[in-house]
């Protein structure tokens, strides 16, 4: 039986956990590809293309920022026109082409500069070689833009929110989605990075490319089992229409009774399948878009003059989400240093496990992934059942509290990183290696484990809480767009890292080439100052987040629950009600 939008009483025969292997395989292979290259990309750029450290770091964060910004485009296409399934499918093909080009550029010698020779300056990649690299990265960024926002929302779509039992499974899905993604990243930073460092970049990129091809096939095979929701038109257009209508009616006096504001269930049917948004008292100037005048045709309204309460509340929900969304940017800025300066630290330290085997510097992220996966499993299996007894919430604590815990742990991560850098440089100084950046400093790379592990724990709390927040609080017709906001925060965090690195590099420059972030010798820099600067920014960000969370208003929604549909009809459920009660108690 095929499920279509608006049929609340049709028994659901599609979706559920049976579809998860097909959906997760696509996301896992995308992460295997992008992380397998991204984690070790700074090594590729500095060793194979001979870029300076700061230029390579900025190239990496710019690529990460672009790949996290394109989800806005992918989300718009999915929500407005193509639907999530076809957006994921086409984007995966584009991603496949980009990965293939990237693999070819790593295999063919003419697409890279010649190797460095002793006593000779290394030749950097020429314009043509960089153009091929950037073109390949652009295709993967575009492909990621269609996959990232849609896979999460598409997976959550497989559970019916109007069914209380299915709704509970939605929150478990976010934990296991992130666990699956983390497991894929773990393979990337161990197996794939090892292959890149010890066998070659051709195989190191070829394996993720082949895995991506297989995942596309698996995802398409699962099509008959998916629960597909039709696109409901451009969400951005509706938001603009509300703004225009409110502006046109800006001179009207606000009515005293909100029940007199315009509502039209038939008009909103396609964008309120899971529930109708109720009127809130905030941002009353937008309510003017729902005031009916003599010029308005209530049967066939002009959306540029008259909008329903539901559509006005869609805009209010998006605006209310903004401050919480912005709080995640600085955390990503801190997290981004793992693939840049933390990796450079690891390259200077003793990475031997045995006399003949040493850990690739890019594989140090394994400690981030391991701590993240362990935290997710602990959170889902132990923490939630215990804390649920005290809070009464199905998911243990609210996503706002979960995010707050992540912010605090991230502060500890960068604070610790600064002290570890001081230790590393002291050992280099004691052994007379300050002026020799290519020599291995006799200090174990495992000194870096605390900062990597703390970042993993912070991500398990902050990132999953962020996902839950966006999916829960976003209007129903903007779920893909909400997931894109998650990736946009990551994008801006990477760009903020680029700006911060550039500014610090510029303004910390001193006499005789001294610099906090030197181009060629990290031992002579003041990387610990840079880490502590990020720590200070995160502390300020935490205070900002606490204020935003305290005054945040959860969206109210009227839902028709399946268990009550035959007898009681509509039941009003204030989404986030339990969270509000919990916040007030705390």
What's the quick description here?
The protein has 586 residues and is mainly α.
Question: What are the defining features of this structure?
Answer:
single chain; three-stranded antiparallel β-sheet; globular; disordered C terminus; MFS_trans_sf; membrane
Task: Explain what the structure shows.
By secondary structure, this protein is an all-alpha fold. It has two domains: 464 residues, Growth Hormone, Chain: A (Up-down Bundle); 79 residues, no CATH class. The strands form two sheets. The protein has a three-stranded antiparallel beta sheet. The longest helix is centred in the N-terminal third of the chain and has 35 residues. The radius of gyration is 26 Å and the shape is globular. The N terminus and C terminus are likely disordered. It is found in: Membrane.
Give the number of helices: 17
Number of separate structural domains = 2
CATH level-3 fold name of the largest domain: Growth Hormone, Chain: A
Spatial strand arrangement across the major sheet: 1-4-5
Binned, the helix content reads 55-70%
How is the main sheet built? 3 strands, antiparallel
Structural class determined from secondary elements: mainly alpha
